[in-house]
Amino acid sequence: MSSGDNNTYPFLGVTETHHSLEHGFGDSAAIRGMYDKFQTWLMSQIATFIRRLKATPEGGGSMLDNTQVLVVSEMWGGHAHDELIALVAGKAGGAIRTGRTLNCGGRPHTHPGAPITAERACEKP
Fold first, then answer.
1. What is the rounded CA–CA span in Å between residue 99 and residue 4?
2. Whose CA is closest to 68, among 104, 120, 122?
3. Beta-carbon neighbour count of residue 91 at 10 Å?
């Protein structure tokens, strides 16, 4: 899903589009409330997906052990690209060490050569 998403989510009580919520996050308590409702729902969907990967046997482990899931927003409060948080789940067949936090020291998540892994995105190009 992209913040360019122009859908509304009436089943959540969200009457603004995801895109407008991203841009208008700081405008009012009502907008922040809708944004929080949507993000909470979205993260619960992602959590369900990750749990299902973990519960699916594959090889000597689970499907999650052999997969990488990357969750990141391309924007925050407009078109700012700083202080973004990325969630990486799975071990990608052993290519990723899990259970840690990486601080990339302000390095943009969009720098050239930043592959999908957060660990490699912190490397100098």
1. 31
2. 120
3. 17
**Ramachandran category for residue 10: left, alpha or beta (phi over 0 → left; psi -120 to 50 → alpha):** alpha
> Are 62 and 54 contacting, i.e. CB atoms less than 8 angstroms apart?
yes
pLDDT, mean of residues 32-47? 91
Length of the chain (residues)? 125
Per-residue pLDDT of 57-105, as tens digits, reads 999 999 999 998 888 765 555 555 555 667 888 998 988 878 877 776 6
Name the H helices within 10-73: 18-23, 29-55
pTM: 0.75
Which are the contacts of 87, defined by CB distance < 8 A and separation ≥ 6?
Answer: 46, 69, 70, 71, 72
Q: What is the pLDDT of residue 71?
A: 84
Count other Cβ atoms within 10 Å, centred on residue 38. Answer: 23
Distances (CA, A) of 87 to 20, 69, 102: 23, 8, 11
Rounded CA gap, 99 and 89, in Å? 10
